[in-house]
Amino acid sequence: MFQKSTAAALATAALTVLPATGALAESATVQQIVERGTLLCSGHNGSYFGFVEVNDQNEWRGLDIDLCRALTTAILGDPDAVQIVPLSWAQRFPALQSGDVDVIIKATGWTMGRDTELGLQFSLPYFFGGTQFMAHGELEIEEATGLDGGTICVEAGTTIERISANYLSTIGVEHTMVSYESAAELRAAYLANRCDAFAGWGPNLAVLRATEIDNPDAHVILSDQLSSEPISAAMRQGDEDFVDVVNWMLAALLIAEEEGITMANVAENAANPANPRVSRLLGAEPGMGERLGLRDTWAREMIAAVGNFAEIYDRNLGAESPYNLDRGLNNLWSHGGVLYAPILD
Q: Element (H or E) spanning 31, and its range?
């Protein structure tokens, strides 16, 4: 049996080790953002259509830009307090490491090398982009099995070339693979009907169809998903509380979609939450903000500013965009996709 003094000492030790319940998170990155009054988020040195682009009014837009605005609203309460920093692909990681940006949200794949060698941490995946085929509509096919005996255009020396050949062989499709050294040559060959299908990254195929083809309806992106690369936000290692903020920003957008909470009805749902999950999400029940070092109403304000994940996707890549890219894997798990949110308890 423990002596009273021993039990008291153990209790005291436990209190010094365990954080107080509900204690505010203390993210150094969030503190810097608040003190600066601006969140520094990655852009692109040009346009990466659907994700990071500049419109005719010289305004930033895209799925990644909206996620930057969502994070800014969560932290600062104002989507316009974001500063988009134009960066090339090569500049993005050095810019993050040097503090020129607070976070990279820029169609960035989560890989082992980046995770272990570059001093980066990654969020929950918010997009899965993989290799797909685009075919001439006159073939009247919807799946790659219809390419039997056909010719496939692909860019030489890429993982797409190997993935496409392996996939077609696996499903028993006889084909001829024609490689081109440049993306411009590849596009020209496909548009000149020198091949039946074009293998590429799904979102890029949708952009090509929408922006560089005179008759987009005459081309079909086949339903086959040959591969899947998780796209995540990247942050500097060492600030776990900031990783929590970014992860729950993404989770809140997905939960809002699951619960049918939109820009148009978020205020009504906050006033009359349908269930405890919605009550917690929108700050009607205290605690949603304190555990992250934010306001309890941060998710409500964020959804009012940018919408839920479906709204963000649809206006930038989906049915309300020029690209009309089907969600596929990027749908909720309950709708045949792979996106899901952690449990909001």
A: helix 28-36
What residues make up the domain containing 158? 131-227
Amino acid residing at 251: A
Question: Is pLDDT of 15 > 60?
Answer: no
The whole-number average pLDDT for the span 292-319 is: 97
For the chain, give the number of residues. Answer: 345
DSSP 258-324: HHT--TTTHHHHHHS-SSHHHHHHTTSSTTTTGGGTS-TTHHHHHHHHH--HHHHHHHHTSTTSSS-
- The β-bridge partners of 134 are 198, 221
Query: What are phi and psi for residue 133, nearest 5 degrees?
Result: -115, 140
Instruction: Select, from the ranges 12-21, 131-140, 179-188, 207-216, the one with the highest average predicted confidence (pLDDT).
Output: 131-140
Closest CA to 301 of 282, 315, 328, 321: 282
14 within a domain of the structure (yes/no): no
pLDDT over threshold 60, residue 21? no
Residue 260 backbone zone (phi > 0: left; psi -120 to 50: alpha; other: beta):
left
Domain assignment present for residue 333? The answer is no
Please state the separation of Cα 271 from the chain's center in Å.
30
Mean pLDDT (whole number) for 204-211? 82
Asked if residue 203 lies in contact with residue 50, where contact means CB atoms within 8 angstroms, the answer is yes
What percent of the chain is predicted at pLDDT more than 90?
68
Spell out where 202-343 has E strands: 219-221, 229-231, 234-236
Decide if 230 contacts 91 (C-beta within 8 A).
Answer: no
Residues 77 and 189 in one domain: no
Domain end position, chosen among 208, 227, 246: 227
Distance of CA 234 to the CA centre of its chain: 11
What six digits make up the tokens of 213?
Answer: 């083809």
Tens digits of residue pLDDT in 39-81: 999 998 877 889 999 988 999 999 999 999 999 999 999 999 9
